[in-house]
Amino acid sequence: MPNGLFPPAVLCLVSCDFAVLKVQNRTMTEEALLGSKNDGDLSHVKATRTDFGHADRQVQPGLELRFENLSFKIKDKQILEDVSGTAHPGKVMAVMGPSGSGKTTLLNIIGGRVKCSNCKATIGGQPLTKKTRRKISYVLQQDIFFPNLTLQQTLMFSAELRLPESMPLQTKKQIVAELIEQLDMEKCKHTIIGDNMTRGLSGGEKKRANIANELLTDPAVLLLDEPTSGLDSSTAYALTLSLKKYAVHSGKTVMMTIHQPSIQMFVQFDTVLLLSGGQIAYYGSPKDVLPLFNELGYNCDVTRYNPADFILDIVKSGEDASNKLISASNRRRLTEVDCPILKSTVNAFEAKLSGKDEVVVIRDSPTTVEDLNDNNSIPMSKIPDSENQLNGGRHVSRDTAEPMNGKCPFAGHATSIESRAPSNNSLDEDEKRWPTSSRKQIAVLAVRSFIQGKYRYLSTLKFIKTFGVALICGLVWWQAGRGEIQESVVVDLTSVLFFVNVFNSFNSLFDVLVVFPSEREVVNKERMGGSYRLSSYYIAKTISEAPLTIVLPSISTVIVYWMAGLNGFNDIWAFFGTWLVMILVTFTAQSLGMFVSTATMDFEHGLVLAIFLMISFMLLGGFYVKNIPPWLSWMAYLSPIYFSWSLMLLLEFNSDTRVLCDNTTSAFESCVSTPERNSTGYVLSSDILQSNSVNDPAWVCVVSLLAMLVGFRVIGYIMLRLFHKPIVK
Ligand SMILES: Nc1ncnc2c1ncn2[C@@H]1O[C@H](COP(=O)(O)OP(=O)(O)OP(=O)(O)O)[C@@H](O)[C@H]1O
């Protein structure tokens, strides 16, 4: 094969995987963005069973989740402004609002997915920290899983990683089995999760798998981001009903975002937090919402309108309506225990509206309703008639200056999060940071990584490619190295070794390139959930994928080596040596791939960097350019291909190799007789090695490859650790 054909040929062969790999890489995110397919298969959820996955373990009680005056900005954009609320055990809070109103951001802050250093929240009266957040499970909107694992495998691995190590395996199995049964997923427990490429669980089943995965740990608080997205109305209702029953019967706290609930779903909620532009437009019971809207001039014809749709339509109808609702909500919140507001926020908001109405100035520390009404100039036009708006003690009557339930509203309001005593002692101070030891994590992750990796490393497509390329190479260089070879054949032998070398290195590097970005979502999700250490993941991955990594390079080496008739026919150790070198360079290229992947963490960027590096390494490998300019020659020492090819040539052209001189036009010194010495008629191995720029002894090449193998892997880990942290407060 002409030398110049190598790069395009190898790139082409490797890139035949890209189309597939790239699509696989997109799988999880795209699927999430596109939403799950609706299969209507939740309608038969066993809503009566609400002891989800309890088995015989001690059930953790629900805890009060309280967030107070959360304000959050991204750059100059105010995403949330003074958002407060309290989700109670045994109850469901629904966070509603138009698209972009900040629902997911609110859940992300509480769930620790977004860093918000000034955001105050408590769980069971204790500040929300990395440790106390372990009581919260967060069901993300995207169903992020490894696509090749079955439902049962997915839940079992999760159970082994997230449930205490001291819990017997049998109990973990029982919990998983119960969850599968209770979520009515028996029939699909051996089905793979699947992705865009491979059909697996349906959209509804994936959603249930996502919820089951979070219920495994028996959380005190369950957060769900759009759990009904992509489901049809009956499926969505069944799911909402199950969550409601789960909250009521297990005494758990449930908080979920939801876009457009049906009326049946809407009435299941205990509290509705309606957001508009990051501010609270309504906070309270769903049954109070229509009277309040009515007071503000928005009448809902319930015979024709779903109240949930109605309130969303009003919020979306324009700035005036939205401001009116926020303003009314702000005033209600001044007396609201569960959903307090800062007076400065009310002032600022009223000031913003001052062009349209009188400015409100609220005194710093109102302690009674009278104070508020007498000393703070709330525009009368902004206070709805008390007789009509009073509801459940949440509204203040201007006439009576008392909340309807007779409780002083300011007593609760004056109590800040910091001053609230812990209300629940179930948060164990001594709880360990990780539910399992590093040893256990590595063991579980290694098995999972092996199962997941075998589909990627040993796919039928890859076998076909490897066999195909190896057979073509074998035929092209058929028995080129057998017996006494001619000098002219030397270039064929160096070519075949270089080609196999480059082919396997490219394959190994690009395989890894796809892995990290696609696994990142799952790993980040799990790490943010506090499932395991990054080091455990990295070590497990390295160990478990090692046997998978060597399969295909070994196959191609064996086929090409013997078909091309290389030196193994004369010296069997030359064959084993070449095979080991091939494995070594495959691992080194894999390490390089890990480094590139973690340095970029993006397939497109990684691809560009990887191609640049591999082409450079090929050029510096000694095959194409025999006389690298001296000022550039040091760069050859950065190339794994240079070292591996050198090693292969050392094994192929050892002192026993007999290469006949071309008597007419020999390129080798040893073929030319001089007055001092006569040529033996055979080319000296040292001449062949020298002409191919093999300047270093074998041990230097081996040590250099090992150093690169370890070095790139360690740098990759450091980059992952430092620059790709999942954000947790
Ligand atoms: N990284 C970011 N940079 C800039 N703006 C952002 C960023 N993340 C979120 N936002 C903005 O924050 C606002 C709230 O986003 P969020 O995802 O919380 O809304 P949402 O109510 O959950 O919307 P949806 O119902 O469509 O999921 C949106 O306007 C969004 O564009």
Automatic annotation (TrEMBL):
Q: Where in the cell is it found?
A: Membrane
Region (Disordered) location = 371-394
- Topological relation to the membrane, as annotated: Multi-pass membrane protein
Q: Name one GO molecular function term.
A: ATP hydrolysis activity
Q: Which GO terms describe its cellular component?
A: plasma membrane
Superkingdom of origin: Eukaryota
Xref: InterPro entries: AAA+_ATPase (IPR003593), ABC2_TM (IPR013525), ABC_transporter-like_ATP-bd (IPR003439), ABC_transporter-like_CS (IPR017871), ABCG_dom (IPR043926), ABCG_transporters (IPR050352), P-loop_NTPase (IPR027417)
- Major location, coarse class? membrane
Q: Matching PROSITE patterns, A to Z?
A: ABC_TRANSPORTER_1, ABC_TRANSPORTER_2
Regions annotated as coiled coil: none
Q: Which residues form the ABC transporter domain?
A: 65-302
User: Which segments cross the bilayer?
Assistant: 537-564, 576-595, 607-625, 631-651, 698-720
**Keywords in alphabetical order:** ATP-binding, Membrane, Nucleotide-binding, Transmembrane, Transmembrane helix, Transport
Q: Family, per the entry?
A: Belongs to the ABC transporter superfamily. ABCG family. Eye pigment precursor importer (TC 3.A.1.204) subfamily.
- Name the chain's protein: ABC transporter G family member 14-like
- As recorded in Swiss-Prot or TrEMBL, the protein's gene is named Abcg4
